[in-house]
């Protein structure tokens, strides 16, 4: 049995994508460093494909960016056009087979695709392709997207992309590489982020998060708009509104809550700042007197800072996180097992002993770690522990490219807030309300809150069929 | 620079294939041991796919069979139906991307294909697929075969295979796995071998060479006939004559000369015995008096035994081959470099000193090692060295799945026999004539001798286009 | 050229050690998890040795704890007695040869040793051993210690340890494993930390840092006193004062500044708390008005919190650290190179734009990264940047087991504070004074401040000889 | 359970050694290629140590020579002096810890040692060292040798070697590297081979077998005499008779029978030729009429050639050996298990069907494979099978560096010849007699035949103690 000490109780993002056009630059090396800045969005596989005007060359593999690439394989990726991908795989063991970008030859030349998101009508589209005689080598919706592009009608890639885009229902932030072009595409609902910026050397880069563009030194960063295709193949960007933006946009709230880097921009807002405001709102929703505010590191730090600021309660460190412990096949001994998360977190006892502690966390998904964290603080001598969560209870799965877990797994689907409080062992538990969350974000609409509310922006099938196939 | 001490001056076979249906047996483990017996046909990648009536599972990788498989990955391959593959890759570095079997999902369910041979009209077929909107992820003709099967018309796999087989021109010994069946297919010209046999446990197995079936304990072994489809999905074999055998069969003579294991049957003949007869014929073609007959190990041993028998000249060992030296990135020192093949071969000097030596080799392809072997014998003190080759001069490339080298590389395309003799430093050099070779084999027609004669059984294109694609 | 993005401008600790006696427990697995909590003290090799009353078994290797151990090798380490080690190697490439524990057989049975520290008279002791006819397989002082123990006089291990301890001059926190015992030893000057605690299951554990004992669930934690030997072989600890504590203790101040985990106790004080006080003292030493206090993550966070508290200047996040980028052989492109540390750090621009920023760092050693960090903040729009360092200028190398760098490398040995300020590009630069630092720590004496003052507690040889030996 | 398909029923040699002095040459690369020629003597670990006049550098590891070395590690081994080693480990899993050469620093500078053989008084010598206060890091007698050299008296290495050599009882062919010298040493009984030769480039090389010297292009090859020390540090060899040769020399007969390469010289004789004579003698010892003589490949080929020559019975190939199958953790299926060695050997049925077959093998040790080979021939249709073994029954273990197995394992210790015949299923079985074997070799005395006769040349302890130590 594999013990996963690394991934705490969080939803799992499925991918990060990146695209670069930079003449006279080593785009593969730029992509390599850019992917490091997207590593948090997927740590199980990585890949880079590069085009030089004639050919596309690719290297991808299982593991972290630093494990997949070395000077040898990177040096063979010549060219001015490039896309890259980091992947989190939701099922089974990670294999190179599922690593992206996905590269094929088409009638119009070679093409590579990298994808963040999930098509909810992939099964239908898949069946159409199979019926048309197209064999598929995986169960991935990215292959469906790729094969549809290969069979699309139109004289240019722009036309061909435009001709199939309307058939795709769901979340897709895509980068497409052709032999002499890079395209960035975002679905009309705007589910997942995608930003574009100007490189210091004169080309352009596109990435899932603006934080990765900042790493590459980009300026003039802006988000790709819902329904847009942006072509990076020239000194100036070419922008097409391929599909009209959806009437009801559906940006993922969880990018604010947890996924995105704090230094990224999402929906025009700095994520760090939104999180500070979420912390402030948490206090205002349910004011309390306490001695210290501590975050669960690292994602809750800005919210805890915000909470401390408006409440006047001092901010300090409560947990020390062991950054080296990750996945391991070693089972702890019985006496260690009883200590639960202590293997990953130690407590600064002096900061909590005898105190009323406000403990800020970003979310409770499966509910399998919060209780152990509360117990750590309790055992260290805290007088009271008041748990504050920067998002509402998560009651519904996500079908837009995030592995939240199933209904069976989601604790808030199965237990009331009071039951959850009891299970965590905290003295009080407060989830952010949907209304206050949106107020803190500063928007009333335009976001997908389906995981909180069950109101999916697109009709979803809760029981998709599985093909008898382990490609 | 990689120094290849392992592959001497021989053509390189491209693949070995294998299929098994064995109810109540661990077919993956059987395939594993069967692939060892086909390892000589491909040492760069290996794969096994298994079906259990519903799903197909696959494992493949770069390296020898013993490197690709372990108890863990093998134990996950459940089922009664199985195909396997060993691969020699002709171009570039070997990657898992090109390893076979090739597995896809089709409208009719999952399907895996493994292939030995080469389609000479792959480029045309490829273009048709691309035009139909099918994206291709490699430049391999096996993917072309697979995608054509995915798009084929017909109610059963037999019908679908029959519907596309007539379009395939060239060499193909194929095994196809579906969720509940294994098919073995041989092209109507009969280029490459394929045999089928009865397993001790009651099922059947098919393999590129009968020697591998012998390893699995098979009895009732027979060759798959040109143009046949054999279905292994039941207790009794089902045999279809899918395409009429070609009027002029074109079995590869080089399977007799070098490729096949000596314990395999090719065209109804034991290869070891054919090689003995080739040795006998070599003596009769040009009788000579000498003191000792030595083979270049290992492939020329039976021919040297035959030569010794009819000539009355004693057979003995001349060369000791180092079985451990293979490919290495270590360059020899200058003084070692001068010794050439000595790193791979030592001489039993006592057996050649002061003697007239007949040295038997199976073929001279690029001509880059024979001279060094002659020099080793000469330096050990041989009085005369008479080189005898069991096949005619190789003057033309092969387009049927064998990497013979290009016109530029083939020494006999560029030099006369006398020039080759001089270059090798031998006192006499005799190639087997085409006529004597066929007489020794015992057939006048039915074989492809294109590499000797340039008379290709099918029209070939000497300059195929390359797509701008490094999938 | 290897680019090291991971290790910023910090001294490098050389080792962490750990020992466990726990009857009826899987001590190897406990050690495995304990070593994770010491991983920050050495990331290049790790090892565990276990004794079962008769034999000692060992496994060690190059890499992180998670890379060196797996269920197979760990399951073979049976027994109740155990020691472990994490290593940072100062010279050359890391090899398993230098990994610890160091295991030998002696006349008194098997013995393994793991060491944190450095003997300054190792060269003399080494020569004595060689002269006595003992061959040495490495240049490590740990082997010298081990061989001296093998040749020591006395009836018990305690006696033998006591007989050689007086000859050792320098820093040594040692754990020693025999076939039925674990000993913990700390040098009489107390250079490096070592703590012992009671395990929940009834045995005892010893570790370089109390934070690791906390991870193992220990209670009743106390530091091993200078000159003590503690035996863990029984239900109660046995404590010997083997050597009288030095008149002038010499605890390493840098354990407070940087090395130790914030949740560890050093000299009776919680390191996190000392760092908060250092931050407070930094403000009091040179008060300033500013808009925001930011730490250089992670080690400066507590000091920044302390600074913010006493100054009233708001604390916030300035840098986002990329936790995935580490060592790589990939060179950045030219345009990336110009950005320096941006690959490892991004800035939260909103928090600094137009502001007077106080930036807290723990130390400046070689001075190769601070300037780039200042520039990141400057480029993000900060109005003024006031750099505050929680320790004095480092002007002298360490010979007690820490790789500070040589005189040539130490920026403060070569430049004045004003010159360093200019080079970093900051608007003001303030190092903590030695006096204020000691006041914040709360002690006047008992610490080694040689790296700041050049006053070494023991006479050191700045130019040790090297043997002609690369074992 | 690991299934070993590679090592058939043979004793296992424990090591090959090699030494080179070659000014102005890349000695490490020469050693690399030389070790390939000694790979058959040890396939579990390999190492090379090189000295440049000042330092010794070493690289060693677990695996084949081709796996342990690469251009990077080899290029770091600078210098003119070199020793190398290939190792077969008799117990436990192979680890780098036990790989040789063994390198230490001594009072006289660095020294590395590689060893083929076994000291029978190692346990006593070990105790003396431990008592002297020397810690030992392994249970290997090579470390004992090395540490004794480190503590030896004398002004030069020659003197020091001479001072300890008389204490060593047993088999040792040693190569010793100092910072500016290479020494080759052979025990006074001459148990194991060691030869020296002149390199084409002017230096000298020493190796366990002359076949390896031939690979390096050596001329003027001669064996190192029993009791000799040869120094390779200069343009001319320096030879010392360190210890008088034993009155009764004890050369290992098994080097003729099986261990040595056929192209090596042992006791002045070409091994291939001795094996031919052993085949001849086998026929003369018990003449028989038969239709075909077949060897068990590869070691019995020369004996079968000799047998065929004097008997007039035709020689031919009976078994085809699979060269790829080796060690594997994959268990065969039940139906495969019944076929036993068929996984490693196929039969050329045509050569044996209906025939009286003489099958030549070099030895029967544990008796676990011969029966399966006989059955293969029987199942292929042989009329009669007459097994002929080129050595006498092996009834006693070897204590001189060969893993023959224990009394319990040795089939001839436990069964009569007739019982062995029955168990193998052969129609007749004839072992070579000791007298005829020695006659074929051409010597009456001077050999160790203890494994056949139980008359050990030195008194041995059949039950050595084991220390409680797994270094």
Q: Could you characterize the architecture of this molecule?
A:
The structure is a homotetramer of 471-residue chains. The first copy, chain A, folds into two domains: 9-247, 4-Layer Sandwich (Glutamine Phosphoribosylpyrophosphate, subunit 1, domain 1); 274-444, Rossmann fold (3-Layer(aba) Sandwich). In chain A, the strands form eight sheets. In chain A, strands 5-4-6-3-12-11-13 form a seven-stranded antiparallel sheet. A six-stranded antiparallel sheet of chain A has the order 7-8-9-10-14-15, covered by helices on one side. A four-stranded parallel sheet of chain A has the order 19-23-24-26, with helices on both faces. Chain A is built from 16 helices and 27 strands. In chain A, α9 (271-285) packs across α10 (301-311) and α9 crosses α15. The radius of gyration of chain A is 23 Å and the shape is globular. In chain A, β7 and β8 form a beta hairpin. With 471 residues, chain A is an alpha+beta fold. At the A-C interface, α1, α7, α10 and β21 of A face α1, α7, α10, β21 and α11 of C.
